[in-house]
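Structure request: TetR family transcriptional regulator, Mycobacterium sherrisii.
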Amino acid sequence: MTTRSASLTGAREATPTGRDEVVAAILDSAADMFAERGPAAASIRDIAARAHVNHGLVFRHFGTKEQLVAAVLDHLAANTSALAEAEASPAEIDAATARHLRVIARALLDGYAVGQLQSSFPAAARLLDGLRPQHDNEESARLGAANAIALLLGWQLFEPFVRSATGLTDLPREKLRQTIFAEMGRLAQPH
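Returned structure:
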């Protein structure tokens, strides 16, 4: 049987302390909630409760909901990029990418100007850096990157539907992943 004091101690252990821990807890909680239900359906109070902080701290560290959305987008972009640079496992990178893309999609559907709110795009920059030598001009490289990103985003968001609609429900996940990346490479080439 858990005593009242034991449960209070457990709650205290889960409570972040110090600016860095509080900010990290808010960003992670907001990212999870935005991915689950979108920014419009995630209240500041709900985000704070999940992060185990007072809702006033969300306003103190991030300001408005729009500023929090911007911070989450940048946080997810940096996290995904750091995993790629550290050569993390494909499963870790895929999970981080999926989370980021879900937040992007839900924020867009909620009317947020994601392209303006997110201030840095390290994955797109890395892709462009790899494509520039293969293209005659900057516009061609940017279009190649845009096409590859659009394909990845489409698969990430609509995979269950696309698999069912095309009869690919039994295709192994790894084979699909390889096919998607091969097609991204083809789309990114000069035309």
